[in-house]
Automatic annotation (TrEMBL):
The protein's name in its UniProt record: Tyr recombinase domain-containing protein
Chain ranges of the MrpR N-terminal core-binding domain: 4-80
Source organism: Caldifermentibacillus hisashii
SUPFAM superfamilies to which the protein is assigned, alphabetical: DNA breaking-rejoining enzymes
InterPro entries: DNA_brk_join_enz, MrpR_C_cat, MrpR_N_CB
Annotated ranges, domain MrpR C-terminal catalytic: 115-313
Superkingdom, natural source: Bacteria
Pfam families: MrpR_C_cat (PF22823), MrpR_N_CB (PF22822)
Length: 318
């Protein structure tokens, strides 16, 4: 069972954030519990080295993830400054090199399409297979709204095109994605991913993702973002894939889309990166009357090395 040290204080801090962020922050607090108990003090009183113990336990797979986790800890310390013995926040001066020390480079965080499908075939629920494959194909949205709103009648089953209501546009998805969507739509019972293997009846609805009867949300025809992210967390545990997250799945899909563009166009430059950004609904940079996607940020994972490793082809990125 997950525990929080000084639970009442941490729960007050969690109230400041939306549900999705709460899950991420609570994971940090769950990992910090052992160190807090051992050192007999709250995370808000930790120094730089003690914070490093927590970051190591969290096993971030990139500097950006380590910095994101550090940001949560830094924010918590700043918020709890009235309780802290020192009035200095040790992460105020932390550099990239500090966070790089805690990056776990041994874990797999990106998958080729066939690798991901091989993993998904182990799952008992079409609902879960479709969830992951839609994210891989670029359909997610803020707070998972594109998944929550997805309806049977939004899908052209013959052309593989899906109408995304929040974007007011259609996206063509893979055959595997359509296959899993059919499974998800037909599914009437949800199979537990825990050891008990129980079945739970699903609410009848035209929405692709369905609630389980007997839950608080049983009267709602639509799932919540909490249901989506909760299922993804259980999928990760069931498949024993530590880094199967929305970001890793999305980035894997972006790499695959880059490979498709390379195959069709013979190049991967600014125009192609903008197409990738549009497809996956990334935020744009606005400067001097222009708007464009952050190619430098995308190249951290859409690069020659990853494409060679996942798809065995040599590309040149300009």
């Amino acid at each position: 069972m997950n525990k929080l040290y000084n639970e009442h204080i941490k729960k007050e801090f969690l109230k400041l954030y939306e549900e999705t962020s709460q899950h991420a922050i609570e994971r940090v607090f769950n990992k910090s519990y052992s160190a807090e108990k051992l050192l007999r003090k709250d995370l808000y009183d930790f120094n730089e080295n003690e914070i490093g113990i927590v970051l190591s336990e969290l096993e971030p797979h990139s500097v950006d993830v380590a910095k994101s986790l550090g940001f949560y800890i830094k924010s918590y310390i700043s918020w709890a400054m009235p309780y802290r013995k020192s009035n200095l926040n040790p992460l105020d001066i932390a550099t990239d090199s500090y966070f790089e020390r805690f990056v776990d480079k041994s874990k797999k965080i990106h998958w080729a399409e066939d690798e991901l499908i091989e993993q998904l075939e182990k799952l008992p629920n079409g609902q879960d297979k479709a969830l992951v494959m839609l994210i891989f194909n670029g359909i997610l949205g803020e707070e998972a709204i594109e998944l929550i709103d997805l309806n049977y009648f939004d899908i052209d089953w013959s052309s593989n095109e899906i109408y995304i209501a929040s974007r007011k546009e259609k996206l063509k998805v893979s055959d595997a994605c359509i296959k899993y969507l059919k499974e998800a739509h037909r599914q009437q019972n949800y199979y537990s991913l825990s050891d008990d293997n129980k079945e739970f009846p699903l609410v009848e609805t035209d929405y692709i993702f369905k609630n389980i009867y007997g839950k608080k949300s049983q009267d709602s025809k639509q799932v919540t973002s909490g249901v989506i992210y909760g299922r993804l967390s259980r999928i990760k545990d069931y498949l024993s894939l530590d880094y199967l997250t929305t970001n890793s799945i999305k980035q894997s899909g972006m790499i695959k889309y880059a490979v498709d563009l390379w195959s069709n166009r013979g190049k991967l430059g600014k125009e192609e990166f903008n197409l990738i950004g549009d497809r996956f609904n990334l935020n744009k940079i606005h400067a001097n009357g222009y708007e464009y996607h952050n190619k430098t940020l995308m190249k951290k994972y859409i690069n020659e090395e990853n494409i060679k490793k996942l798809y065995g082809i040599d590309v040149q990125i300009s």
